[in-house]
Amino acid sequence: MQKRKLGNSGLEVSALGLGCMRMSYGDSPVGDRQEMISFLHSAVDRGITFFDTAEVYGPFTNEELVGEALAPFRGQVVIATKFGFQPNPDGSPGWTSLNSRPEHIKQVAEASLKRLKVDAIDLFYQHRVDPDVPIEDVAGAVKELIQEGKVKHFGLSEAAAQTIRRAHAVQPVTAIQSEYSLWWRTPEEEVLPTCEELGIGFVPFSPLGRGYLTGKVDENTTFASSDLRSPRYTPEARKANRVVIDLLARIGDQKGATPAYSEGCGCSRRSRGSFQYRVPASSSAWMRTSAHLP
User: Fold this and answer.
1) Is residue 226 part of a domain?
2) Which tens digits make up the pLDDT trace of 175-210?
3) What is the pLDDT of residue 208?
4) Rounded to whole angstroms, how far apart are CA atoms 173 and 195?
5) pLDDT mean over 248-277
6) How far is 266 from 268, CA to CA, in rounded Å?
């Protein structure tokens, strides 16, 4: 497995990361707890060192799963988790509001440390920008956690270019996480150039188009009303974009790989000067493509 350094931070991770959300959260978790623990172990065996979770996944249960599964590999893996939501008080899935108040960030960090069974959080993302809290206050709170040794690196998810600049001026940002694939290229307009300029790593999520680019979704596929893909993936759009899947299939045939792996390889590293960014896979997509990992 190749390695990548996220921007100028020096944080080194595997070229392919693993998003753990669906292992215990969402409409259809991909397996039971023990199966997912075994799967996480196999991911480490295959060279994956970068794992992504968040307190709101569950809530809390995904961090607990990742913490338990990766406990034997402390010092060998990088775990990213996130703050920024106010989970439902009754513990049910979902959240009541955004919450990035500094005191809440510190509370989340303490709880995440315990669930992940670590002494310091490797990469601590703001999950979504909170319009009610100045980003300078958010960056300042994480800076204090870094000074206390409870967090190693600061990240932002789905942040605009100007927000990134303001945060970076207070506490250097290691990575920006945003959706990016052949189907969603908005980060190319402002966010990627900003990351390149400031030496920040870019970590795409849903690089396989939320499953579409695996070649397993077509115009006849149905989604539950609560599925995040249902508003965007109309039957007409899926049918019209089959040309993309056909192209990836042809490339895959040439390389002896799946359409999903072809797309992942195409986006996994694009360098302009010293700027690099890398692709994490979802757990379900990685299960389909793991046989072709380098």
Assistant:
1) no
2) 999 999 877 899 999 999 999 999 999 999 988 887
3) 81
4) 9
5) 59
6) 6
Does residue 256 sit within a domain?
no
Q: Residue 91 belongs to what domain range?
A: 3-209+268-292
Q: What's the domain count of the chain?
A: 1
Point out the residues that are catalytic.
Answer: 57
Is residue 249 pLDDT above 70, yes or no?
yes
* pTM, rounded to two decimals: 0.86
Confidence of residue 136 (pLDDT cuts 50, 70, 90): very high
